[in-house]
Amino acid sequence: MKILGSWLIKILAILGLLLSLSMMIFSDISITSSNNRLLAKTVISRVVNSSESSELALGQNILESSGLEDELLNSLPKKTVISTTPWEVYQMSSRFQKDTTLTAKDLKLPTKTAGERFISKFLVAGFNEEFKSDADQIKQAARSYQMAFYVILLCYLLSAVFILLGKRWAGIFAFLASLGMVGIGTLAFDKVNSVLATEIYSGMKVTMNSSFNLGVVVSGLVMILFFILQRKHKKG
Predict the structure, then answer these.
(1) CB within 8 A of 99, min separation 6: which ones?
(2) How far apart are CA 82 and CA 53, in angstroms?
(3) Where are the transmembrane segments (predicted)?
(4) Which of 34, 55, 209, 215 could cysteine-pair with 27, CB 3.0–4.6 Å?
(5) If pLDDT is split at 50, 70 and 90, which confidence band does 45 have?
């Protein structure tokens, strides 16, 4: 019975780690635009002024002079929320090692209406223009993200292995990884929001879902409870 109890504790602890890990890599990161029309006008102006593509500038001039631009902008929904996950960002970073060109699908931009397709084209062009000039830095950032992703997975794996070995302190690796991910993510998104506000549009924000914090709580509970239960089980 003692051996059975020990294995039951270990299995429950590992299930707790899996729950925490799923929260850390599959929870939503949301990009919110509070005023799509203002965002569209700002992006179009920046892209046309900075892009080397004469096709974009000509297209924008034709649409503006014909009055279609305002009509398309007015068809946009007032607000937009685009969601992604750390796992999807990892997949994108893997592709960036070969090609830093983005598509509307990569950015999860809405393309249901003519207005949405119109602004999506300019957003994609703007991002690709920036990526083209900073391709080496983008690739380095993608590699760094991949390495951080691997480190997090390794920490959770180490915790699982040490749990199976019955080490009371096993959960510390997963807890530190989840805590570090939320802490670094918070700092990174604060920086991203600052750049968005100054370089693109102050109405855009990137936020982390509360599930990330819950993932930290779960890993912390696994760490504490496994330590206590293992100690009691061995004494008993």
Answers:
(1) none
(2) 27
(3) 147-165, 172-189, 209-229
(4) 209
(5) confident
Query: Treating both helix axes as pointing N-terminal to C-terminal, what angle do 86-96 and 2-26 enclose, rounded to 10 degrees?
Result: 60
Q: For all residues of the chain together, what is the average pLDDT?
A: 82
Q: Can you read off the two tokens belonging to residue 16?
A: 């707790």
CA 84 vs. chain centroid, Å, equals 6
Domain ranges within the chain, ordered by starting residue: 2-235
CB 93 within 8 A of CB 84: no
Backbone angles phi and psi of 169, in degrees to 5 = -90, 10
Higher-pLDDT residue of 105, 56:
105
Rounded CA-CA distance 47/202 in Å is: 17
Alpha carbon of 25 to those of 43, 178, 232: distances in Å? 30, 10, 33
pLDDT computed for residue 176 by the predictor: 97
Q: Strands 80-84, 204-208: parallel, antiparallel or unpaired by DSSP?
A: unpaired
pTM: 0.84
Token pair for residue 30?
Answer: 């949301």
- Span between the terminal Cα atoms of the chain, in Å: 11
Say which residue, 30 or 71, is predicted with more confidence: 30
Tokens of 12: 């429950």
For 222, phi and psi rounded to 5 degrees? -60, -45
- Band (pLDDT 50/70/90 cuts) for residue 233 is confident
Identify the bridge partners of residue 83 per DSSP, sorted by sequence position: 30
